[in-house]
Amino acid sequence: MFLLLDAPNLGGAEKAKLMECVDSTYVSTAGPFVPEFEQRFARYLGTEECVSVQSGTAALHIALAEAGVGPGDEVIVPAFSFAASVNPVLYTGATPVLVDVDPETWTLDPGLTEAAVTPRTRAILPVHLYGNLCDMDKLGRIAEERGLVIIEDATESLGGTWKGKPSGTLGNFGCFSFNGNKLITTGGGGMVVARDRERINHIRFLVNQARDASKGYFHPEMGYNYRMTNLEAALGLAQMERIDLFLEKKRTFARIYREVLAGLPEVEFQKELPGAQSAWWLPSFTLSGGVIAELQEKLREKGVPTRRLFSPLHTYPYLRDCCRFSYPEAERIFEQGINLPASTVNDEESTLRAAEIIRDAVHSMRR
Ligand SMILES: *Cc1c(COP(=O)(O)O)cnc(C)c1O
């Protein structure tokens, strides 16, 4: 049995495209593949335009900067996410305000979000965690009523949808990552989309050091060097050829785990809301009874790689001042939860076998 947790799926097309870069000497930010990849990605999302950047973190940072978020502002961020969801808020000088997640979806709780809004709140940063969509209707309504910007962290949810609309196109800004463990990879890279065309044009200007090329090297405002390279875009283009296949695999793996483990009352999978279609980036569940570390060890011995979930952000020393509330759900999910192997290199047979091993291990741990 051969199973990987979240390794990338690379092949001949990727190799050939990379060689084209080397042969043409276009390895840096100039070259044909960057605009081609952007157009391809925009078409996939059904948007007009998007801007490629160096990472998902850079995508979030530039979206926050473009939204005008800065010192004195507050940005609502779920307490249960990867550190890269919250760090870009700190880069801008704004204050992240951590809010607990919903016990079933593991994503930003809309009721608690509404209660956390203050006169200083500028933006909400929903994270579609492990591919699962947040309640974008409720969050959208709060944002509209309070005049807030929504910046979607769609880094884990590429391919997921809310009422048929792709994640990342549901807020004012959407941010994607092409890190090696995501649905598609460019080695390291990201993408920003925006509802407003002018915003996207300005982001394209900002990520290129805010250079006004019509005046040579003249920079009317502070910019960033966040541009994607031709090498990265080459990988991205090759990966886009197989994105539907990758997504189909993720969904199949998630279905297999849920079906095989369905009869176990102590196991609870992350749930999709009605209207949501998760990208199932990493199928994940909680196991009650305080035995998740024991399960993980048993699975490791049997060749099933798993990973503990993200430590809740409110437990990080540098985010102490961002904790106005309590975070019982983030804590419970972290203490009981696990990610399952779902690399698109895996096949259905090994995934089925892994699911059976997990089922048997959970049975064997009953006291
Ligand atoms: C991967 C990820 C990011 C950041 O992406 P990078 O490309 O690694 O910078 C941000 N948020 C979440 C939830 C992620 O999983």
TrEMBL record:
- Please list the residues that carry the modification N6-(pyridoxal phosphate)lysine: 182
Q: Which Pfam families match?
A: DegT_DnrJ_EryC1
Q: The organism sits in which domain of life?
A: Bacteria
Q: Which SUPFAM superfamilies match?
A: PLP-dependent transferases
What protein name does the entry list? Answer: Perosamine synthetase
GO-annotated molecular function: pyridoxal phosphate binding; transaminase activity
Q: Which residues form a coiled coil?
A: none
Write the record's keywords in alphabetical order, separated by commas. Aminotransferase, Pyridoxal phosphate, Transferase
- Catalytic positions are 182 (proton acceptor)
GO terms for biological process? polysaccharide biosynthetic process
Needed cofactors, names only, are: pyridoxal 5'-phosphate
Tell me its family: Belongs to the DegT/DnrJ/EryC1 family.
